[in-house]
Design brief:
single chain, 430 residues, mainly beta, Cathepsin D, subunit A, domain 1, 2 domains, 15-stranded mixed beta sheet, 7 helices
């Protein structure tokens, strides 16, 4: 764990000019609407950027270093400014390179500019890009409703070439990076508007991301109640490309043990901690559609789950790709928290920090709902990270990432509170 106070002070100094532009309007928090792309299972949001403002569709990357967009195709803006070499913004982005461009000047191609390395985590591809600043516009919120639009005149982002879009949801022209990096969206926006270094994520077929503190409210007037567990910093970057000595900007937690129907899983617990080379541990990711487990953990997990399912007279059936473990839905009842299957407990570090995964987040209906598959995948025998908690397991759970305190707040499934992440009130304004 680490304090972000020095980083925040630097950001606040760099963005102090924003106070004049925003003096008449200080939003309490900021809001992104999120939709799940049915084809790729990616989570997609939209911002407005440039002068004049243009809607920009972005894939959400929870651990991404920064916001990057394709500047090769149709990037037109009178307010675009490249970040110059050896500038404070360049240092803030941890850039070690400067460059010139023979085909400019244009957005993404200018002389004496600061270099950055945008990456596509879905294809594990990274390339060189130009660090830049431009107008950035986003809705505000009081935690219950959308409000007035807030504007950042000099938001720092990275220009990337068009080929980096490969594998992204149709229509997306970049990534929204929500990682710990100093130029990631959470720290930049907190500095620009002087609100707490926190952000909340609530994903579903449609969901929300809120930058800033709560209270948060979902219809019908449900405010999430959090349990907390520490966030850990992996000392070695997990990006597709990085400089030696860079820590990871992704979000890691510590699982101490796993239980199925209160029965503990027998696993090699050394896999649950991050070693000095950055291997092991557990991270939370919107890149992986389903949770992946290191092979020995996966085998123990699926063996015990299948055993507990059989005790409930739930019959195993042939696998349906990409899943290995599937069951007949015939003897599985529906409950408020999903199919009635064995509960999975992730016992996290912290007092009462148990994340219970019910059928709503463990089982996936396939084959016209006649078959239920366990939504966990084999991550291989020697993965970089032992457990990667994927998007499906995050859905309709409310999470708060507190960067100042380096802790994660989590609720468990919202279905138990008779609400979902789709129940944010977009029909009226704050």
């Amino acid at each position: 764990m680490a304090s972000f106070a020095p980083i925040f002070a630097i950001l606040l100094f760099l963005l102090v000019s924003l106070s004049d532009a925003q003096s008449s309007f200080r939003p309490k928090a900021l809001l992104l609407r999120v939709e799940k792309d049915a084809s790729t299972l990616q989570y997609v949001t939209k911002i407005n950027q440039r002068t004049p403002l243009v809607p920009v569709s972005l894939v959400v990357h929870l651990g991404g270093q920064f916001l990057w967009v394709d500047c090769d195709q149709n990037y037109v803006s009178s307010s675009y400014r490249p970040v110059r070499c050896r500038s404070a913004q360049c240092s803030l982005a941890r850039s070690t390179g400067c460059g010139d461009c023979v085909n400019g000047p244009r957005p993404g191609c200018n002389n004496n500019t600061c270099g950055a390395t945008p990456d596509n985590p879905f294809t594990r591809t990274a390339t060189g890009g130009e660090l830049a600043q431009d107008v950035f516009s986003i809705e505000s919120t009081d935690g219950s409703n959308p409000g007035r639009v807030a504007t950042v005149p000099n938001y720092i982002f990275t220009c990337a070439p068009t080929f980096l879009l490969e594998g992204l949801a149709r229509g997306a022209t970049g990534l929204a990076g929500l990682g710990r990096a100093r130029v990631g969206m959470p720290l930049q926006l907190a500095a620009a508007f002087s609100f707490p270094r926190k952000f909340a994520v609530c994903l579903s077929t449609s969901g929300i991301i809120i930058f800033g503190d709560g209270p948060y409210s979902l219809l019908p007037g449900v405010e999430p109640s959090f349990r907390y567990t520490p966030l850990f910093i992996n000392p070695v970057s997990t990006a597709s490309a990085y400089s030696l000595g860079d820590p990871s900007d992704e979000y890691f937690i510590r699982i101490n043990s796993i239980r199925i129907n209160d029965k503990p899983l027998s696993i090699n617990t050394t896999l649950l901690t991050i070693d000095s080379k950055g291997n092991g541990g557990t991270k939370i990711s919107t890149v992986n559609p389903y949770t992946t487990l290191e092979t020995s953990i996966y085998r123990a997990f699926t063996s015990l789950f299948t055993q507990e399912a059989a005790a409930r007279n739930i019959s195993r059936v042939p696998a349906v790709a990409p899943f290995d473990v599937c069951f007949s839905a015939r003897n599985v009842f529906s409950t408020r928290v999903g199919p009635s299957v064995p509960y999975i407990d992730l016992v996290l570090q912290g007092q009462n920090a148990v994340w219970t995964i019910t059928g709503s987040n463990s089982m996936v209906y396939v084959n016209n709902d006649n078959v239920l598959c366990l939504g966990f995948l084999d991550g291989g025998s020697n993965p970089r990270t032992s457990i990667v908690i994927g998007g499906y397991q995050l859905e309709d759970n409310f999470f708060q990432f507190d960067l100042a305190a380096s802790r994660l707040g989590f609720t468990g499934t919202l279905f138990g509170s008779r609400t979902t992440c789709s129940n944010f009130n977009f029909t009226s304004n704050a």
